[in-house]
Amino acid sequence: MRGPLLIAIDGPAASGKGTLGRRLAAHFGLPHLDTGLLYRAVGWAAERTGRPPAELAATLRAADLANPELRTDAAGQAASRVSAIPEVRANLLKFQKDFAYQPSGAVLDGRDIGTVICPDAPVKLYVSASLEARADRRYRELRAQGADTIKPRVLAEMAERDRRDSERAAAPLKAAPDAYLLDTSDMDADAAFAAALAFIEGKGFRSAGP
Ligand code: CDP
Fold first, then answer.
1. Separation of 26 CA from ligand 1 center, angstroms?
2. What mean pLDDT is reported for the chain?
3. To the nearest 5 percent, what fractions of the chain are helix, strand and coil?
């Protein structure tokens, strides 16, 4: 094994990056940070309290990430809005870098992990899937949670969030030039995990476990 294993995963909403991140973290025994939760926590608090998002970002604590309301679609839209503010991104940088550069190594997933947060990560994955496949997944998730929604609405909201995340000036969503591209449109979670694992093992990293 060559130095700590730091895995940077980026990609759009419902591409499967969160599930993949959790599975890779469990496999390699690494801590995992879903960085979307940071932006969700800031967006959610900004809407509730009216306080400036940059100030909320500067005082964010790990305990703030446990709020179950952060998982809602409304929190995702609020996150996408505050995440375009450069001061918000700057104020969340240290939290993410501290997590990434722990001696154990780490797994982080988000939109700018391989490009801005950890440009020197030894493993970078860019997980994508067609808009239709992603909207379909999110629609099923929402229905399973009992949400009352229709597929065209989920698709329209996802297209809007994609556009905002890719077109913003501050750290737009894009693949790092050295990222391994994983298109999961026709892959289930097991297939995506197997493909990512083969890539990581090909770089000489192995799980320390049995
Ligand atoms: O799970 P899902 O992909 O739907 O959302 P998320 O990863 O929780 O991210 C919510 C929003 O936060 C995204 O639409 C981005 O605007 C923003 N975000 C970001 O700008 N940078 C990150 N590293 C992570 C999320």
1. 22
2. 94
3. 55, 10, 35
